[in-house]
Description:
By secondary structure, this protein is an alpha/beta fold. The chain has helices at 34-49, 71-74, 79-84, 113-120, 147-155, 157-166, 172-178, 190-203, 206-221, 224-237, 242-252, and strands spanning 6-11, 17-23, 53-59, 64-66, 102-106, 109-111, 123-127, 131-133, 170-171, 183-185.
Amino acid sequence: MAEPTILTAQHGDGDxxxxxxxxxxxxxxxxxxxxxxxxxGEALLRFDxxxxxxxxxITGSEKAFAAGADIGVLAQHDFISAYxxxxxxxxxxxxxxxxKPVIAAVSGFALGGGCELAMMCDVVLATDxxxxxxxxxxxxxxxxxxxxxxxxxxVGKAKAMDLVLSGRLMDAAEAERSGLxxxxxxxxxxxxxxxxxGEVICALGEASVLAAxxxxxxxxxxxxxxxxLTERRLFHAMFGTPDQKExxxxxxxxxxxxxxx
Length: 261
Ligand code: HXC
């Protein structure tokens, strides 16, 4: 039987757990094909709908988070087939519908579509071996899953142009300095750190976690005045939740808050 293209597991023993999705085409450096992206999208939406899951981690192998879209598949296309089949992008947008936090735990290569996938996540943890880049230009194409849009927002236009126009890779230190990576962690601690962050998020109030993600994401899409308004509305809405009562009462009573589902 063929190996599954992703592996899933759940971690933690609280009310809500962290779901881990491992990209599983290690021999192809987790090159992203339709089968894998369908499975990833299905798992993301399933975990998002599961009340027992509070946070999702996407990871790859030690050598590669993902070395991009599967070039063997891309090579078979011409313009007409790419355009009419909505090549690649068809099953790449599921992650944008996920309301729970998604952490990318990156070791090794995160290139092309792999870098784009990491950028679609909310937090990017990387080992010091991680390498990021948009090398599509070397294949005679350009990024196609948001790379030319999210990279400049993450690292600024000057560095995005440098990377996209040359196809060069940047190491984890440069990626962290530039704002693409949230934190660098020791290679042997990658999953432990991702799960520790997942555990922190799972123990927080669910409504405030979803609202915080929604509000930060608005800053990507909306003019500042609209983003500020979204934030204000969500901020006010939080005062209707039991979590706000519990969080503030606990602070004032000098005890640890217990956020209930
Ligand atoms: C298909 C790939 C692949 C990919 C690696 N492999 N990347 N197969 N698609 N994107 C395969 C190799 O063919 C090889 O298969 C095996 O994985 C191991 O790779 P090697 O090249 O032998 O490893 P190494 O020498 O360590 O080099 C690692 C690497 C290199 C630098 C990451 O593999 C590489 O440059 N890969 C392509 C990176 C890239 O261009 N990505 C962008 C793709 S386009 P065999 O069978 O020989 O063992 C893209 C467009 C996105 O992502 C559009 C929207 C989503």
